[in-house]
Design a protein that fits this description.
With about 550 residues, the protein is α/β, with parallel strands linked by helices. Among the domains are: about 140-170 and about 205-310, Rossmann fold (3-Layer(aba) Sandwich), CATH 3.40.50; about 480-550, no CATH class. Helix content is about 30%, strand content about 20%. It has 17 helices and 23 strands. The protein has helices at about 115-120, 150-165, 175-185, 225-240, 260-270, 285, 290-305, 335-350, 365-370, 375-395, 405-410, 415-425, 455-465, 495-500, 510-515, 520-535, 540-545, and strands at about 20, 30, 60, 70, 75-80, 90, 95, 125-130, 135, 140-145, 170-175, 195-200, 210-215, 245-250, 280, 310-315, 320-325, 355, 435, 445-450, 470-475, 490-495, 510. A 7-stranded parallel beta sheet has the order 19-20-18-17-21-22-23, sandwiched between helices. Strands 1-2-3-6 form a 4-stranded antiparallel beta sheet, with no helix packed on it. It has a 4-stranded parallel beta sheet with strand order 13-10-14-15, with helices on both faces. Strand 4 and strand 5 (about 75-80) form a beta hairpin. This is D-galactarate dehydratase.
């Protein structure tokens, strides 16, 4: 029963208003679509609930013996640690991690037919920035990059000077006049509302065609292995060569592991024909901090003049590269938001575009489906090797993929790593896998690419963009504000409660797929239209508008 591949909701499983959802006919547990009381029938055919079960949690559909596999999405997601009766809620304490064995078979993946879904998008384009290498950016951003954490402060000072005076500052402003007046004059400061006005303010930009000046502060560049320094420079090179980047100002201290020649080498490897302004400044060579800041500001201003000459022009959907990410997942993520993203990915791939799926710890348990979709057997073997190397490293540190679910995940119904993975894999849709990349690898093949990244959503989003994603689709059930300094991040809520409660974070509500029976196709088309608007600069994502510029480097090795 559990030896098959993951059943994907993009196959249009009917979701209606039953109290529970059985995702795959072979599943022996179901998902509660609302809070259920003891005695309610799990389905019209039974069984009845032996105890209340919370919204998004799991209930046994049949008797499950101790040691038997617990199955969701048609695959093993755990082993029962005690006997469970039909109609009994399944708790975290009832399961342990269990996944099926993976076998590499002759490559023969089949592309899903997206012609029907794409009929509404025939001739649709987005307005992007066309680069000399043929790639198209969805934004035109100037980057200020410290080569080592020691110059984070100076890099931020350089950025702040430019951001403030050139009209890119976005910050919350609060009117505290009433509070200050009451305090100075001995009034009752605890009476009334101390903040008269609170809003996000902005200014008019000097450079109309430059979408932002962003500072990539971090904790990398020195104090670790040379291999980590090389990976760091490769990541930065991916950001500099990215089609969303107008140019870059790079600040070096001078003595760090990540030397200027190393970043230049990474750039030459990734983009030998790179044609954009890049300026290098080294503090120890200049001596004076004041002179460092002065020269960096001056060179950046010259670069911004050149960058401002870029204009948005129509581009086909094939020039889009989607990063597929999740964070703060819940029991609905694998039912609503992730399958909606997966269908959008399939539609984009059908139009000649590219998608990148990462978070390898969250693919543990879905390996057989991933392997079966690789267009070449060597890609399947490469994926399994990356997974095994990662798994061994995690176990050597006293952890493992089974430790991936966070307390928030578990509280909201994701009880094992395999259960979380089976839902997380839905983000990749059903398209064949055209390439498998290690961390910092650049997506060069159209279609669905796999990228080895951690489950940490900011580390992973950072990597997806570094590998070429010019728009990121990010599902969340619990709500997370994650953004990126270079590519827009579209936040997709798995449930309407989170979408309504966190409106300043969420961009798109996929909840109606489960609670209102809205077809996945309908939601996927809505989401793809939003992608086009965001990619064209006509709609700001919530994280972009608020300046949520998250950037975290994945450190592989020890500090030295």
């Amino acid at each position: 029963m559990a030896g098959g591949t993951v059943r994907f909701l993009s196959e249009r499983i009917k979701i209606d208003m039953k109290p529970t959802l059985q995702i795959n006919p072979n599943d022996n547990v179901a998902v509660a679509l609302r809070d259920l009381d003891a005695g309610e029938l799990v389905s019209p055919e039974g069984p009845a609930l032996s105890a209340p079960v919370s919204f998004k949690h799991k209930v046994a559909l049949a008797d499950i013996a101790k040691g038997e596999k617990v199955v969701m999405y048609g695959v093993s997601v755990g082993e029962a640690l005690r006997s469970l009766k039909a109609g009994e809620p399944v708790a975290y304490e009832d399961l342990k991690q269990l996944t099926d064995k993976t076998v590499v078979r002759p490559a023969n993946p089949v592309s899903p037919d997206m012609s029907g879904q794409l009929a509404d998008f025939e001739g649709v384009t987005f307005d992007g920035y066309h680069r000399a290498d043929g790639k198209v950016g969805t934004s035109n951003v100037w980057l200020i990059i410290p080569l080592v954490f020691c110059v984070n402060k100076k890099s931020s000072e350089i950025g702040d000077i430019l951001i403030e005076q050139l009209g890119y500052a976005k910050r919350y402003k609060a009117d505290l006049a009433n509070f200050i007046d009451a305090y100075k004059n001995g009034g009752d400061v605890e009476a009334g509302e101390p903040v008269a006005d609170f809003h996000l303010s902005g200014q008019e930009k000097v450079f109309k065609n430059v979408d932002g000046i962003k500072i990539l502060t971090h904790d990398a560049g020195c104090g670790g292995t040379r291999a980590d320094a090389k990976r760091f420079c490769d990541l930065l090179a991916g950001y500099i060569a990215h089609p969303n980047t107008a140019g870059a100002t790079i600040i070096s201290l001078g003595c760090q592991n990540a030397q200027i020649p190393m970043i230049k080498e990474s750039l030459a490897e990734q983009a030998p024909e790179l044609d954009k302004p890049i300026y290098f400044h080294e503090q120890q060579q200049l001596g004076s901090e004041k002179e460092l800041v002065r020269q960096a500001v001056a060179s950046t201003l010259k670069g911004l003049v050149r960058a401002d000459k870029a204009v948005r022009e129509p581009a086909p959907l094939s020039k889009l590269t989607l990063g597929l990410e999740c964070g703060g997942s819940d029991g609905f993520s694998g039912i609503t938001a992730n399958p909606t993203m997966g269908l959008v990915s399939d539609m984009l791939v059908g139009a000649g575009g590219t998608s990148i799926l990462g978070e390898f710890p969250e693919l543990g348990g879905a390996e057989q489906d991933i392997v079966d979709r690789c267009v070449k057997e060597d890609l399947a073997h490469g994926f399994l090797k990356l997974m095994e190397d990662y798994r061994q490293k995690a176990e050597a540190s006293g952890s493992g993929f089974d430790c991936n679910p966070s307390p928030g995940n578990i509280k909201d119904g994701l009880l094992t790593g395999a259960m979380k993975s089976a839902g997380a894999a839905q983000k990749g849709g059903r398209s064949p896998i055209t390439d498998v990349l290690d961390y910092t690898g650049i997506a060069k093949e159209a279609g669905l690419n796999l990228l080895c990244t951690p489950g940490n959503d900011v580390e992973s989003t950072t990597a997806l963009v570094g590998s070429g994603a010019n728009v990121v689709l990010f599902s969340t059930g619990l709500g997370t504000p994650t953004g990126n300094p270079l590519a827009p991040v579209i936040k997709i809520s798995s449930n309407s409660n989170t979408a309504q409660r966190m409106r300043d974070v969420i961009d798109f509500d996929a909840g109606p797929v489960a609670t209102e029976g809205v077809p996945l196709e309908t939601k996927a088309k809505e989401l793809l239209r939003l992608v086009v608007e965001v990619a064209s600069g006509r709609h700001d994502t919530k994280s972009w508008a608020s300046g949520q510029d998250d950037f975290i480097v994945w450190k592989h090795d020890v500090s030295l």
